[in-house]
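Aim 2 progress update. The chain analyzed this quarter is reproduced below.
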Amino acid sequence: MPKTLLPSEVEICYETFGSSDQPAVLLIHGLGSQLLLWEEGFCNKLAEEGLYVIRYDQRDSGLSSTMEEDYELSDMASDAAGLLDHLLVKKAHVVGMSLGGMVAQIFAADHPERISSLTSMASNTGKSGFGIPKGKALEALLAPAPTDPQEQALKDLSDRRIWASTEWHDDEYCLKIFERYAERTNKNNEAKERQMRAMNSTGNREKIISKIKTPTLVLHGSADTLVDQSGGERTAEIISGARLVIIEGWGHDLPPGSWPEITNEIIQHVRNAEN
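Predicted structure tokens:
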């Protein structure tokens, strides 16, 4: 996969689908994840509808740069803008899941001239009591990752079972995905911890995201036990004009069974924003 070195000296690994002369959709993954979250089948569904799809590894993820110092969500949003610059994309429809949703929200607030629409998936506003991880889900999120790739994949699978979709989860399928994750990167626990500190240091983002004027879609699953449904509901309440869609049985994951409804919502949202 290609990489680009941004002016900030952060190297970003990315991949594109579709034609660059079509409306661009930028996909931003979540905490400790990789661009592989957005599987090829998912990306192709969007590209087949006439969209230029961009997925990438955020800093401290996948094959992008491992950082040495702490940073903010605004720095991660600036990485996204830098990648668009590299690809000569003036404006994009930005889609983010979980931590990626937070980065997408900050992108919309900090770079309003670069965004055509916002889709915030399985995320929150940072306000206490609304979609904040707790209980077993929080314990799993905070537990250190094993250094052995196979053990890492098994931990990922164990964690996934806690917040998986009730309708579409499949152990065997997930394990294969997580083995690909573990084989692809050697990021350490410190990388994930830096991402968490970026998320936590920003805290309550409601004052920032209440200024967002771009057309906004909020997608959340009824079965999400990591960032529960209240996170999406609060996000839609704070962003003026946002449309909230609750998907029954969807958890904090992106299994193939969820793709038809999620991609259909994104495609319709993009088309509405383009018209």
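The chain has one domain: 3-274. The domain at 3-274 is CATH 3.40.50.1820 (Rossmann fold). These observations will guide the mutagenesis experiments scheduled for the next reporting period.
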